[in-house]
Amino acid sequence: MQKNRFTVLQLAVLAMMTALVFVSNYLRVTMPIAIGGNTSFTLANIMCVLSGLLLGPVGGLAAGLGSALYDLTNPLFASECWLTFLTKGAMGLAAGLVMHNAAHREEPTYPRCVSGAVVGCIAYYILYFTKSYFYNGLLVEGLQPAAALATLPLKVPASIFNAAVALVAAPILCMAIRSALKRAHLKLA
Known about the structure:
Blueprint lengths: L7 H17 L3 E5 L5 E5 L1 H12 L3 H15 L7 H23 L6 H31 L4 H39 L6
Helix pairs in contact: 1-2, 1-3, 2-3, 2-4, 2-5, 2-6, 3-4, 4-5, 5-6
């Protein structure tokens, strides 16, 4: 019986992806929205999805931890770092589950990477809009349910941009990194 072990390479990539997720969160433009709260254009979603694509489900840890650490360094987001850990972690986890299922059957392909990115983004945005309504809208901002619901469409343009960038960039980066690792005779999954 073969044991699944976490290799030194996987641990190094996990730490590197956590750091890249953390740093990529600084590449953001935050804008206030009319009713309450704010929205951001960010490149962090690329790294969150890429974590899952490279590491499988464990990539959710890098996505969640890197994003939560960023929140702790920014007073605007510090109070919701635990929610960020869960939502961004779910993004990496969902992308990783798609890749994990494929890794045991075949070499990961570009379409599989795109599928993982799509599933990761969908999982994240379901959780993000739920958090925006309940936590940010109702709890933090103290909005009435109808007003909290009215804030959600204002977050759609930034969300579409963030998802589109992640869907384009993360699969390309994944295939390039996997190719480089293969040439170096290193295997992540």
